Amino acid sequence: MKVDGFRDLIAWQKAVELVVECYKITTHFPTTERYGLTSQLQRAAVSVPANIAEGKGRGFNGYYVNHLAIANGSLCELETHVEIAKQLGYLQTNQSEQLQQKIGEVGRLITALRKSVEAAIR
Description:
The chain is mainly α. It has one domain: de novo design (two linked rop proteins), CATH 1.20.1440. It has 4 helices and no strands. The mean pLDDT is 96.
């Protein structure tokens, strides 16, 4: 399959789905967390597809690899926020597990994409 732009990337598509899921779940967080954990979790989630898109859009594989690393870092940050939300009782175990599963899937896709881009540099 030919990839014309970032919208064609499965990693980006799955990352956007993860963002939507995070936004839906955080609507149930306490309002006292609006500027705290809710905001941090949403920002980390949004950063993942945004960095995939930005890296692809720069047109240079070196920048692309760097932005994929940033996306992966944001994904780790998101995973941390989800764990904290679970421990605070804002997420039920099944919600946390579902998010963690999606985070893992996006992480594997980003890793595979990064390896592919790195191979093209060589």
